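Risk register update: the risk of archive-format incompatibility is retired. Evidence:
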Amino acid sequence: MELKLKHRDLLYSFAEKFYNTYVLDLFEYAPKYNAEFKEKFYMRGHMTPAGYLLTAKITAAYIDYIIRRNMNDFKEIGFIGTDLHA
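Archived output:
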């Protein structure tokens, strides 16, 4: 557990250092992948299709949440990698 918290703190320090960087804090805002979760969504050491789908939906919802609350930071996202991006 302590290593997970240190890793999370490191990710937050990157977000503080780099401009327009966000952390998907799944440790804080996603269900715990504990024994009960693993009973429902794991099989033979890996997530089941339902487990991967749930994880993908959680991740997508979190990204959507961040974008909707920081719209100005993402207004040119479709132009990254082109000469149209400021």
